[in-house]
Amino acid sequence: MQQHRVIRDLGFAADAGFRPLELDLHLPEGPRPHPVVLELHGGGWLRGSRREFTPLVSEAESFGRIADAGFAVVAASYRLSGEAVFPAQVDDVRRALAWISSDAAAAHGLDPDRVVLWGGSAGGTLAALVGLEPGARVRGVVDWYGPSDLFAMEEHTRSLGVDAPGASREDRWIGGPVPDLPDVARAASPVSHVHPAAPPFHLAHGDADDAVPLAQSLALADALRAVGVEVELLVEPGAGHFWRGVAPERVAALFDAAIRFAARVTATQPTA
């Protein structure tokens, strides 16, 4: 792989009473300005780190692979559900996007007009929610095995025996049991925000995922296609959550498919 450099712990947001939010910047070689991948980690909104793209995959084979394809990768932290509930995490992603348009980002050669959101699991949900906001300044969304419908997720969680009110990851994220907060749960569900002007989506999911069922990505793909939004959907046979059970060469192929999507949607400058 080619060489790229990493600048760590750049602050991009600070609120009184909360830890300052920071990001790591993985910079490629090559001419500026660089197209950007804003990466959002998983962890059920209650754990995870910007230092780990996805468990079981090294930094070189994740962040490095994307940077070596010519993208600047902005790996941003966001507040976890033990710190703040929805929509705080969405606000944090918006602020990371704003940083990409700042003078500080320009100094590193980032192109704010060629941004792709890429998240896995809980990070995929955040990427989808922000990408679906009207007027979102992003070229595309890569959503790996992210929950898209909190009501269906609540039913799935109950089927696994997690039935204490407020105990699920989704409950903790929105601040209470999904059935008790239907308006909030709907606001936190990407399937509720689909519209014809949304950017292209690349969805990938394993058909053996018992944490976030494949049905979550299928439902989002169907909703997007129903209003005419471009969707790529990859279903990986035998794959569990975070691509568990998948051979390294297949994980590399999944990364490469998402990188090709990102390269295609950022290939041209926006029209005036």
How would you sum up this structure, described in words?
The chain has 272 residues and is an alpha/beta fold. It has a single domain (5-146, 196-265), classed as 3-Layer(aba) Sandwich (Rossmann fold). The protein has helices at residues 63-68, 88-100, 103-107, 122-131, 150-159, 169-174, 182-187, 214-226, 248-265; strands at residues 5-13, 21-27, 34-40, 72-76, 110-120, 140-144, 201-206, 231-236. Strands 1-2-4-3-5-6-7-8 form an eight-stranded mixed beta sheet, sandwiched between helices. The chain is globular. The termini are far apart. 47% of the residues are buried. The model has no long low-confidence stretch (mean pLDDT 95).
- CATH fold topology: Rossmann fold
SS field, number of helical segments? 9
The order of strands across the largest sheet is: 1-2-4-3-5-6-7-8
**Rg measurement, Å:** 17 Å
Q: Write the H/E string, N to C.
A: EEEHEHHEHEHHHEHEH
Concise synopsis of the structure shown:
The chain has 272 residues and is α/β, with parallel strands linked by helices. The protein has helices at residues 63-68, 88-100, 103-107, 122-131, 150-159, 169-174, 182-187, 214-226, 248-265; strands spanning 5-13, 21-27, 34-40, 72-76, 110-120, 140-144, 201-206, 231-236. The chain is built from 9 helices and 8 strands.
